Amino acid sequence: MEEKVQLSYNGQHIEFPLVEGSQGEKAIDIQSLRAQTGLITLDPGYKNTGSCSSAITFLDGEKGILRYRGYDIAALAEKVSFLEVAFLLIFGELPTEEQLTKLQDDIHHESLVDEDIKTILKSFPKSAHPMGVLSSLTSALISFNPSSVDVDSDEDMYKAIVLLMAKFPILCSWAQRKIKGLPLNYADTSLSYTENFAKMMFRMPQQEYTAKPEIIRALNKLLILHADHEQNCSTSTVRIVGSSHAGLFASISAGISALWGPLHGGANQAVIEMLEAIKEDGGDTEKFMAKAKDKNDPFRLMGFGHRVYKNFDPRAKIIKQTADEVLGQLGIEDPILDIAKKLEKQALNDPYFVDRKLYPNVDFYSGIIYRAMGIPTEMFTVMFALGRLPGWIAQWREMRLGKEPIGRPRQIYTGHTERFI
Ligand code: SDX
User: Fold this and answer.
1) d(CA 388, CA 316)
2) Residue 311: which pLDDT band, with cuts at 50, 70 and 90?
3) What mean pLDDT comes out for the span 18-42?
4) Phi and psi (nearest 5°) for 60?
5) Which of 226, 264, 306, 313 is flagged as catalytic?
6) Known catalytic residue: 114?
7) Overall pTM surpassing 0.90 (yes/no)
8) SS (H, E, C) 167-198
9) Per-residue pLDDT averaged across 57-77, rounded?
10) Radius of gyration of the chain (CA)
């Protein structure tokens, strides 16, 4: 028997069906609300509103659960490669050896970016933020790959996905090389996806480069942990831009811009800047905790809090452990890791944070690992984007295959009523 919800309004009693997901989550299906009542819902920030049904990622904010296509992220981060997780998210299953080899070969075949993209890159000032460079170059890719726009067949869509998976890490590495004034590296298709990226990021022309295994292991883990997170701000952006049938590259370029914000993916850069500021200020974490709690002070404890997780962000736990491992393996003593741990300990015992269920999120410790790898702070959100790429692609593909209608929310108008000049 289908469960229903009843709304009483204006003397009417209207029923709406309840939708239940595979994990028991329930939603009121209000698709007929306006037609039946003339009413709309109002929910700034969509805190109570589902935009779609999706089979890609499940997260439970109360229990701190995160699974990609049913697999727990801790198991994936330990046992498989980032490219296998990308295949899982996009196509729904972990790849067979044959499928993985085909994807790798197809990516290798496309691991070149048109030389004219360098001309666009050259026009940016060295001071340009790499997220702005990445969003622009991703959009520019369309001009050099026009076939990637109209993806009306599975084959066209697969080709566009491979193009982007192949060229995006090159653009990410070029964004870093640009701000550091270093020569650009080309892909090395003899390496794994993650090793190739590390080499493009760090190889110096005057010497050979072999990535340290601990760096590759940590990078693989970080990329997997960032790969998808259901309907977050940037993924919702990718879905709504794609719902107008803008191409994949244009939709991802919009997602990069959304991720850039300090309340979202830009938080990993803001966390390190905050920890540096606390260190420069003498390391008085209590002073900054007080600022974070002061409503008259715009300061927020960056890397803390989450719209969905009202328990520990499961990614933060793994990243914190990885930070300890990598810094230990590399023999790095980073004082800001100690400051981060001190802040976390104080916050977890402070009623302001406990009452509001504010815990460390994915961005709180990730920057400490990127720093240990020699990645500049302004590049941290580019690293987030590289990890999130397969999730964005998977969500965009699901939206297009599901033939979802163009996204077009309504509003409540509060401006002037009719007036005459
Ligand atoms: C990501 O959505 C996702 O899935 C995103 C993400 C992903 O993988 O895609 O997980 C990645 O974006 C992680 C979040 C990174 N952002 C930050 O670390 C920035 C700092 N955190 C916040 O600004 C905030 O917690 C948000 C933006 C993450 C969530 O904001 P909400 O859900 O809109 O909550 P809110 O701003 O309404 O805060 C509720 C209360 C408020 O206090 P009261 O008005 O109730 O007194 O908590 C307070 C806030 O002032 N609060 C904080 C705080 N975060 C919330 N106070 C101090 N420091 C903070 N960090």
Assistant:
1) 16
2) confident
3) 97
4) -120, 105
5) 306
6) no
7) yes
8) HHHHHHHHHHHHHCCCCCCCCCCCCCHHHHHH
9) 97
10) 23
Using CA atoms, how far apart are residues 130 and 49, in angstroms rounded to an integer? Answer: 33
Cβ neighbours, 10 Å, residue 40: 13
In angstroms, the CA 34 to CA 41 distance is 9
Which of the listed residues 235, 238, 272, 358 should we mutate to test ligand 1's pocket, taking the one with most ligand atoms within 8 A of CB? 358
pLDDT digits (tens, 9 = 90+) for 73-100: 999 999 999 999 999 999 999 999 999 9
Amino acid at 332: I
* Better-scored residue on pLDDT, 365 or 151: 365
> Is the pLDDT score of 1 beyond 80?
no
Dihedral pair phi/psi, residue 101, rounded to 5°: -60, -40
Residue 70 contacts residue 48 (beta carbons within 8 Å): no
Residues 6+ away with beta carbon under 8 Å from 239: 51, 52, 231, 251, 395, 396, 399, 404, 407
Residue 214, C-beta contacts closer than 8 angstroms, at least 6 positions apart = 325, 326, 329, 330
- Alpha carbon nearest to ligand 1 atom 25, residue: 305
